[in-house]
Model the fold of this input.
Amino acid sequence: MADPLTITMTNRPPVKIDKDKWPVIASSKSFQGEHEFQANWKKKLTVRQHADGRTIIYGVYESSYRDSRDRRAGEMVQSDGTTADLVGDTAPIIEAIIRVAGYLEFDRQLADECIADLPAVEI
Done:
């Protein structure tokens, strides 16, 4: 595996992926502070999609506050035969973004920003 990444999933064991084979197709983040590297907390949602259409949606909350614990969650949306270039029905991906954000207690705006960052669907 050229560039491995371990992703914490919700209610199942973590998965390990090759980042080169699972490119980011959407993301959003927020943090408290003027600069991200100095932030008291960070929230991030990420959507990665494999060429076979499988999609992983995951989120991370990191805190520098004493006695605060980092939180992670993720879900996989199974392929329906579409490819990364042809996203197809995005409803399952959008629903998973909202669930992951809710599980991590992120505000809806962060989920909406991640949804808005998804590739545009031609109609």
